[in-house]
Amino acid sequence: MINKIAASVAEALAGVKDGATVLIGGFGTAGIPGELIDGLIEQGARDLTVVNNNAGNADQGLAALLKTGCVRKIICSFPRQVDSWVFDELYRAGRIELELVPQGNLAERIRAAGAGIGAFFCPTAFGTELAKGKETREIDGRQYVLEYPIHGDVALIKAEAGDRWGNLVYRKSARNFGPVMATAARHTVATVFELKELGELDPEAIVTPGIYVSRIVKIPRVATQAGGFRKAA
Fold it and tell me: Which of 7, 62, 106, 200 is deepest in the core (most CB within 10 A)?
């Protein structure tokens, strides 16, 4: 019987190894899998390459992971914002490597990994420092830059609900990078707020089919500072 439900976050993350490339969902704080990030910190894997839209906020979540010193490199689109002081300090001290990728390219490079595409040409970044050292080609009178897929050893994502087969649905903007990251990793772990019986999820509404998911973990809803679930007034 297929049952991908893990008893705990620790159980779901037990196989993450040193040197792994970890795809972490989230757009800012929307859909960030905080419980899985905390679990990864406790698990202790080091020398990690992390792929995310940004480089952490304040001292929680991804920023807390960076602060442990276990991340060797980060691949992201927005490394600096008003509360990215953890990344700023590490980068200025030469303690973390940055690969800056335009947001559309980031999403497409991850999607390409999941789709089995070896590489693709994209006009974004042509003529800029981000294209330095990369192959370029003129196609139909326009200049393009060759980009390669971003594969992950593990993807950590946050969903709204799932079933024991690993089928997932998301809540609004918390969906963001989760679906493409799930397809691009060898091992995908998702947290869910609700566990559904088989057949309860409408097949037409399932965003991430269970074939892309290795383990799911049920977590409680908690109050947030901005949007999402809140305690009653």
Answer: 62
